[in-house]
Hints:
By secondary structure, the protein is α/β, with parallel strands linked by helices. It folds into three domains: 21-239, Alpha-Beta Complex (2-enoyl-CoA Hydratase, Chain A, domain 1), CATH 3.90.226.10; 250-377, no CATH class; 383-448, CATH 2.40.50.140. Helices cover 50% and strands 17% of the residues. The chain has helices at residues 2-17, 36-51, 68-79, 99-106, 147-170, 174-182, 189-194, 205-212, 240-248, 251-270, 276-293, 299-317, 323-339, 351-377, 383-387, 440-448, and strands at residues 24-31, 56-62, 85-89, 95-97, 109-112, 117-119, 186-188, 200-201, 216-219, 222-225, 232-235, 391-394, 401-406, 409-415, 424-431, 434-439. The strands form four sheets. The protein has a six-stranded parallel β-sheet with strand order 8-5-3-2-1-11, with helices on both faces. A five-stranded mixed β-barrel has the order 12-13-14-16-15. A three-stranded mixed β-sheet has the order 4-6-7.
Amino acid sequence: MKRLFFLVSVVVAMLLSLPASAATVKVAEIHGAISPASAAYFLRALDEAQRARADLLVLRLDTPGGLDSSMREMIQGILASPVPVVIWVAPSGARAASAGTYLLYSAHVAAMAPGTNLGAATPVAIGIGGTKPGEDKSEKGKNDAPSGNAMERKSIHDASAYIRSLAQLRGRNAEWAERAVREAESLSAEEAKKQNVIDFIATDLPELLRTANGRKVTVASGKVTLALDAAAVEAIAPNWKERLLASIADPNIALILMMLGVYGLLFEFYTPGFGVAGIIGSICLLLAAYALAMLPVNAVGVLLLLLGIALMVTEAFLPSFGAFGIGGIAAFVAGALMLIDGEVPGMQISLGLIVPLAVVSALLLGGAAAFALRARRHPVVSGVEAMLGASAVALESFKQEGWVRASGERWRARSSAPLRSGEKARIVAVEGLLLVVEPEGKSEKGEGK
């Protein structure tokens, strides 16, 4: 019994002498607009941190804003997470504007690097008939306010209540959060720290972990204390699918894919062959359609863009000396400018892309028109018209009808004068499968009279 007690004591002592396992910190990074692709990447990182039983997930953030639906998906993931989430606006010069401000308020720990800023969280309208922030005047009565302003007020009230609830949940400055929504206010990192908008300022990741160490936070499963001594840091990189989605979710890339798809199908129709151009064009069009489904698309812009493409295709197949082509280019440029709502941060189509695309389209249309005019000037080389005036050789002697050889083929022919075998004649008409010929000698005599 004593020996057993001694062995148990030795084992317990050995277990107590073992070093504690190091903490694990997962690090993800979002740079750019908040989109369905970035939301999918963050939620996967959050799920991976949970499955690995990580002690902390750090999201390095630099965003001008983005889509409300994607932002809310990310916030719901944070609020339901048993793993503490630190959102760190970094590096210096980065920002957490618009949707980024909501994300920062939802984090268990909010931090910023020196020289960064946040704010300007006023929601903007998407689609047709939306009004710009600031157009709605509080002095106007509710009865005489336009419907667009009423919708804007609803959106702002909803966003204010949302960010205020996040601020109250995390114990941060709710009054400034509401001003960021209603008045589009912004703060620097130092001012945000003074006004209790963020928890602290950290220059780099080691400083961030040192400052966060020992903090008590409330997660979905209850209160936890961050123990980050000698933490092992592991980065979570986007996978190929998320990188692809992030690439095609860029409005400029979506527009390029759409034009590549149209040109590929157009080239396939012009020069049928192995189908490579048609296959590539179809794939590009499908990717463009998927990308546009993830973006805040303006319906009028889509219709104008489709009209422009249809007119340019019509010009290519039915040349109208520029009428369809010019109208198509004008509609395409207008549609491209209106395709994505310009007020959604990070979701604009560059004018520097639209102009080259319009120029390339104009050059392609000009080339197609030039080929069409050149083809019309060329003499006919096939068909019935090409046979008129051509020579035929009699295969037998006949007075009215017999067999002749024309264009390397055997034809039944009718002659106005007798023909001898091997004699040449000129084709003057084609009546179905019958050639009307005249002896060449007779034609020459007739011309000499």
